[in-house]
Amino acid sequence: MLCSAPSDSIINLFLGSPDAHVKPQFLDSEVQDILTRITGLNLEKVFRPIKQELKPPKYKLMTDAQLEEATQSAREQAQRLLKMPPVLPERKPINDVLSEDKILEGMDTAKYVFTDITFNIPHRERFIVIREPTGTLRKASWEERDRILQVYFPKEGRRLTAPPVFKEENLKVVFGQDRHEDMLDLCQVQFEPDSSEYIRVHAATYEDLEKMGKYDLLRSTRHFGGLVWYLVNARRVDGLMIDMLQKDL
Prior knowledge:
Layout lengths: L6 H9 L13 H11 L3 H4 L17 H18 L15 E4 L11 E4 L12 E4 L4 E4 L2 H11 L15 H9 L3 H11 L5 H17 L11 H10 L4 H9 L3
Antiparallel strand pairs: 1-4, 2-3, 3-4
Helix pairs in contact: 2-9, 7-8
Organism: Oncorhynchus mykiss
InterPro entries: Ribosomal_mS22
GO molecular function: structural constituent of ribosome
């Protein structure tokens, strides 16, 4: 098993040997297979009750064959629920100025936003520009694009302005309640996976889990693979390895 190998071997497996020309990537099939295996598949945790209106339970009488079929169906559904979010490098800033029209300077005190709202166009390819009061016409920044796209193409659960819970001082409160998974789920909804805020919140969450040794909070969740990938790339996987060996995982 993976956890029986020395930590250096696992680091080399993920990052390649020092003289390797190409390091493995998060989405590589071999990496995904390893991360999936060490994530675990605890059906009780995957399908644990969530806070919602209480409803009477439903009971079914099944034959052994039907029970086996239902269990297999639950496993397949659990595997879909455990699909790992992508791990991407931070997107590069947009600083493109298209024109400087001094004749328009001072004509208004507000910015004007022009957005291509044609359907069936990938959001990353949408042309969004901003006319500044100074007359400058430029492409919208990533943060501006995210807010504008949320206006025209709202994503369920996402807010125009990020909730205060993502502030540094509030993260510590959430972590103190062992709600790391909830924080990552909320982050997944609010931010794009290559945004600086998404990466910052994930890093802060992983750092707290590593510091406190609370790896089990993410085990058998879709976020465990991201935690492992973060620690491996930081070459700080020893604590996780010891935890896995102690639990005979």
